Amino acid sequence: MAKIKVRPEDFIVEELIDIPFAVRGSYTILKLEKQYWNTLDVIDYVARKKKVPVDRFERAGLKDRYSRSTQYLSFKGDFKDSVVEKNFTVRPVGKSNMPVSPAMLRGNRFCMTLRKLHLEEIERIHQNAREISNHGFANYFGEQRFGSARHGEGFIAKKMILEHYGGALKLLLCHAHRDDNAAERRFKTYCYSHWRDWEGALNIAPRFYRSVLYYLCTHPKDFKNALKQIDREYLNLYLLAYQSYIFNETLARLIIKYGAGNVSVKYSMGRFVFYRRLQPRNHLRSLSIPMVNEKTNLSGMVGMCIKKVLAKEGITLKRMGLQKMRLRGVRFKTFSRSAVIFPEDFDVSDPQPDELYPRAYRCSVKCKLPPGTYATILIERCLL
Known about the structure:
Mean pLDDT: 94
Oligomer: single chain
CATH class of the domain at 151-233: Mainly Alpha
Order of helices and strands: EEEHEEEEEHEHHHHHHHEEEHEEEEEH
Radius of gyration: 22 Å
CATH topology of the domain at 151-233: Hypothetical Protein Yqey, Chain: A, domain1
Shape: globular
Number of strands: 17
Helix content: 25-40%
Distance between the termini: 12 Å
Number of helices: 11
Structural class: alpha+beta
CATH architecture of the domain at 151-233: Orthogonal Bundle
């Protein structure tokens, strides 16, 4: 079976961004190069090291912790000295009158190495690459988006929608997933076995969970307001993870209905359904699908598919408003996302002997993708 991300240099990501630099400006632009860290953890670490508020940093996107990535941040004010750690560096590269934002992001450039391949597999990858060039590929959200739900017990956001606040807290505090370190696993195992022993859990809690547990120590049954102690950026990511799942399920239904040569691949949240071909006038080529919130218009073909997904999930649009939570700055935000992507500068190399796996081969896949498109989904399609 093909392997990806064996080493960080096997998955290189470069952010393509238009930053309006200035001779003087209110913001310092920072270049972040990293591996084995997610973007938010780097920002949190640097904020604590510099003893500055974390909300003075802005970003355009998030990059996979298992990649070697380059991206840009902004800091409100002066940021003079670089921060150099084992697996990341943050360096000031200029000034701007505007903070870095998603609106500046043009996309990402990728160079990915696929390993442990047989020659027949590489031939199939080249054939699939020709199909992708002609017909595009389905724009699913990848596994990285679902880290908070990969324990297999469900989505924190869904529990919040259904007002199962205790259930949401249990998903946060009791269920480990693969990105958790040893301390987090020990903490979550303790919470699972000693539910409601908030003081005991606080004694071994990693820093991220302490605000929730401090609140529970004095309000032991107030699960709803305990959830409000979670960092707002992460709460919004939990909501976005559930919206992304609804998007994926909607897109799969549309491809089943309108795609040709369909084949499915299992992933942690369900199945990716990929088409092999689309007719030239197939409307999937130009279709956009909304990220669902309480105000989404569910008319037409796309709306019908979303309705079926929501019915299967047992939720309604109205409840996605989270009115009872009253969370300032936390909500299901809506935007549209293309159903199909055509990669730019797309190329698959010829096979080379794989220095890590004897008697096997490797090849590289290079491309540029729009903001928010997952290169891992392109790889899934290449390997069909």
